[in-house]
Amino acid sequence: QVQLVESGGGLVQPGGSLRLSCVGSGVPSLWFHMNWYRQTPGKEREWVASIGMSGVTKYFDSVKGRFTISRDKEKKILYLQMNSLKPDDSAKYYCHIPSGYIGPETWGQGTQVTVSS
Description:
Layout: E1 3-7, E2 10-12, E3 18-25, E4 34-39, E5 46-51, E6 57-59, E7 67-72, E8 77-82, E9 91-97, E10 106-107, E11 111-115
Parallel strand pairs: 2-11
Antiparallel strand pairs: 1-3, 3-8, 4-5, 4-9, 5-6, 7-8, 9-10, 9-11
């Protein structure tokens, strides 16, 4: 069974940085398309960034130039480097594997990011 476990969240001041990690288990490597999403209470989950099978990356407009998605396929870790953080970035962040690669879509449990002074 595939599992994703996020870590790296926390409390950071505006303008600060965090690096989120998502460790996969139950798969030989993270070779497929993967996403980061985020969600705040009362709102729908929002797509943040993706990395394709070829390594092509895409970002939600509000995080372009500040966030970087990357991965280590063999270590089975997906990363999200977040710089110049803003209070609006506060949310629970989730890594995600779309359906079709390893079966049904798969979500981690999330890691909380709070940006506040």
